[in-house]
Design a protein that fits this description.
129 residues; mainly alpha; 6 helices; Reticulon-like; transmembrane helix
């Protein structure tokens, strides 16, 4: 009986060794191939960041924001980084406040609109004799 168990163990070890050494051999059944494919898929999931299945670009929305965050458009990403850094510098280092910034931007916009409207009156004026 002990010999029978040893022979079964040897047979099992031989099957495992043959499957490991040649997983795509012709002796594999369809079920073995499917289970092998599932094991490979599970193994691939384990090695991806946070176990995700989609690429990171698709996870982020696959649009302009994803391109900016992944630095695919380097000029735009650099501009966004520069703008955010300047805002951080204004608010944190110079102790500037958001309400003050909004008020100054509105005053600037009002001044530009006022000058534009006055300049357009002088430019579009025709001389009548």
């Amino acid at each position: 009986m002990a010999d029978h168990k040893e022979s079964k163990m040897e047979e099992l070890a031989h099957k495992i060794h043959s499957k490991i050494s040649s997983p795509s051999s012709s002796s594999d059944s369809d079920e073995d191939k499917r289970s092998h494919a599932r094991a490979v898929a599970l193994k691939a999931k384990v090695y991806r960041l946070f176990g995700r299945e989609k690429p990171l670009h698709q996870v982020l929305g696959a649009g302009k924001p994803a391109d900016i965050l992944l630095w695919r458009n380097k000029k735009l990403s650099g501009g966004v980084l520069g703008g955010v850094t300047s805002l951080w510098f204004l608010f944190e280092m110079l102790d500037y406040h958001l309400i003050t910034l909004i008020c100054h931007l509105m005053i600037l916009a009002l001044s530009v609109l006022f000058l534009w409207s006055n300049a357009s009156n002088f430019i579009n004026k025709s001389c009548n004799p």
